Amino acid sequence: MVTVHELYELWAAESELQDELKRSLAPRGRDWLFELFAALGPQPGQLVVDVGARDARHAIRLVQEHGVRAVAVDPLPLHVELAREAVAEAGVDVEVIEATIEALPLDDASVAWIWCRDVLGHVDARRGLAECARVLRTGAKMVAYVTLATERLEPLEAAELADAAALAPHGLDARALEDAAEAAGLALVSVDRLASEWRERMVEDGEWDARADAVELARLRRRESDLVDRHGAARVAAAAGGRLWGLYQLLGKLCPAVYVWERRA
Q1: Fewest CB atoms within 10 A around its CB: which of 108, 130, 174, 241?
Q2: Is 150 helix (H, G, I), strand (E, B) or coil?
Q3: Run of H or E residues at 225
Q4: Whole-angstrom Cα distance, residue 196 to residue 204?
Q5: Buried b (16+ CB within 10 A) or exposed e, 78-98
Q6: SS3 call for 114
Q7: pLDDT along the chain (265 residues), means of 10
């Protein structure tokens, strides 16, 4: 174990380690998810379902890049309205439907691809993945981006985050997710654990200010009781959770991952 004297000497001295930590590791950015999908070989005319489509920008991009047909599914009326506006503006073949992942209004074995980002942690994964398996054709694939806990995330942190971010029970649990996929008849093709890559890239590209999130979180903690009285506990918790989400990824407490599953016969 290092002594206090040795510790301060280490901190004071210039080192190759300090230089290395200042160099980018060329992290993958968010476009990598689209590159992964392209590498799987989607064909023009095939049906892609974007589950949890929000404003449908992903579905629109998939149609534009691959000539596929798309259905954008989201349970929130606000998102459905935004998606329909975006689709109309883009002039692409995307049908927008208000529905949940647990009850997809699609025929059995009718879908070639499912694109699912930031959804499975918020729902009953067993029901959602079983429904996805139902609508996928045999051999069809599902690409799912999820954020999962690592061993660094403490139980109290996980509980706070689950409440603030409206996560389902076991919503951050990799084993529970993988077991749910297997139970649904979805075979694992690949899993890429992105760790902090996307967040590093967002910082390096100037798309996200981690320092601002950290400072705002500190201000929230110092004035939490007052802020709760003025704005309500739910709004304050959501504000904290939104900032913790990215910071925990940088700190290795949360690990975004991308699963590719295939529908078994």
Answers
A1: 108
A2: coil
A3: helix 224-231
A4: 12
A5: ebbebbbebbeebebebbbbe
A6: strand
A7: 90 86 96 98 98 98 98 98 98 97 98 98 97 98 98 96 94 98 98 98 98 98 98 96 97 98 94
